[in-house]
Amino acid sequence: MISTTQNTLKSTAPVWFITGCSTGFGRELAKHVLELGYRVVVTSRDPEDVHDLAASGNSLVLKLDVTDRTQAEEAIKHAEAHFGRIDVLVNNAGIGYFAAVEESDETEVRKMFDVNFFGLCRMIHVVLPGMRKRRHGFIVNLSSIGGLRSFPALGYYNATKFAVEGLSEALWQEVEPLGIKVMLVEPSGFRTDWAGRSAAETKHSIDDYAETAEKNIQQLRAVSGNQSGDPVRAVQAIVRAVESANPPHRLLLGNDAYDGAIAKLDELQAEFAAGEATSRGADFPKATMKASV
């Protein structure tokens, strides 16, 4: 299903392609950039979920499941044919899964990896040829504070985001010389549906994890919809970062994200310093230079 709206906007308006626009950051970001007068490719697994966005601004609504390579290729092809190019790809589509590592179901874990990591990879693979040809583009990958530090019950979710972080760090070293920017967005808790219907959880809990994983699952569910993060302010910050003169490689969003990241840095620095002698002692000894006579 494809639907479009057109107005008299200049063809020079930026073209944003956003995955996962039915809820959360994707929906708010699509609304915001449409309000700015940009051209926007609004995607969802069910286009009916974004029919209101289809009537707003200069939009192209496409059906897209990021786990389907054919759909990904066709969506990029339609977008480039319709708007002539893609300036900004936002890899927002994602899901959660709550369980202790031992409790986790492999099918659920693989499903989450296919959306959060491999789905993101598919979109990067299909958008890069056009961006390389134009020597211009920006790729925004939605990560999480959970991509920098882990939490009980989120081990495999953390793993998907750690993977996104590692991929993105290599990617920007490869494509920045070609005129393409890459940015990781690392939010803490925001009032999206991530901890609601977008996250499944284990059906086989183990009593030994009641005070760690299970306790954290209960806390995540309890605060869903009441987190401190404001999605509207978040998407405004994302656009400002993309359009800044020197975009960051990592954009932390939320007080908890900032404080958590700094705490992780302090923890790593202290642990590395404590083990410095052991770390340095693992190399072959340096050859002793003979003093010249």
Architecture overview:
The protein contains nine helices and ten strands. By secondary structure, the protein is an alpha/beta fold. It has one domain: NAD(P)-binding Rossmann-like Domain (Rossmann fold). It has an eight-stranded mixed beta sheet, with helices on both faces. It has a two-stranded parallel sheet with strand order 6-9. Helix 1 links the parallel strand 2 and strand 3 (39-44). The longest helix is centred in the middle third of the chain and has 29 residues, at 106-134.
Attribute tags:
single chain; 293 residues; alpha/beta; eight-stranded mixed beta sheet; two-stranded parallel ribbon
Q: Beta fraction of the residues? A: 15-25%
Residue share in helix: 40-55%
Outline, from the CA principal axes? globular
Q: Tell me the radius of gyration.
A: 21 Å
What is the typical, i.e. mean, pLDDT? 91
Number of self-contained structural domains: 1
The CATH homologous superfamily:
NAD(P)-binding Rossmann-like Domain
